[in-house]
Sequence to fold (222 residues):
Amino acid sequence: MKKNRKINILLVFVLFLITGCTTQASSGEDGSEDTEKSQIQIQKYETEIEKLQNELKKYEQNIKDLKDELAAVETLKREELDDYKNLVTKAIEFLNDDELQELAKSLWHYEIKINGDPVPSIGEIELDQTNFEIIFSQKNSMIDILPDKIYNEGALSGEYYDHLEIEGIEPKDIKRMDGTTVTAFVYEFENLTSNMSFQINISNELKERLGLQNNTIIVRIK
Fold:
């Protein structure tokens, strides 16, 4: 009886040891699986990072190539401009005063736009809006090919308001806008009466530059 009891106790002890070992083995396997999963995830991240780094290198190379191309184009443009200036410098030696003045005028461009549209040669325009802008702009060439004195003679004489007068209405505001090569005067009109008209009087100089038939621009509001 005592012997059987000892055997039973021994069996229980052995079973306890086996269960403990199995649990430890299972825990070890779970830890190993977690470690393996983490390593796989890390490898994926490393692969993605490497791909992104390669793409970044490509973009950086593309930017460098574009900068090199732009520098080459700018160099070529400067060389062509220098050649053009040299050619013009030689050519103007054979021009008389009138021809030089015409050349200077060609380097200054003038335009009047009403609500975004240029004025037709007949000098008449219709609007279907009571809010609009009149823009009188001057654009000069960036190519400096003439002596300053001759070049400046190509511009309109005096001030801009000597060449344009709006008759019959008053603008809400007048703004001046200056850019690198463009100067514009913006006349803003708001809430004008429908079925009315007004006129813009321009100088002979401006009429010639705009290619208009007369010195009056008629604006009709429907």
The chain has two domains: 1-94, 107-221. Residues 10-19, 21-27 have pLDDT under 50 and may be disordered. Residues 107-221 form a domain with the Immunoglobulin-like fold (CATH 2.60.40). Helices lie at 2-92, 97-105, 148-152, 204-210.
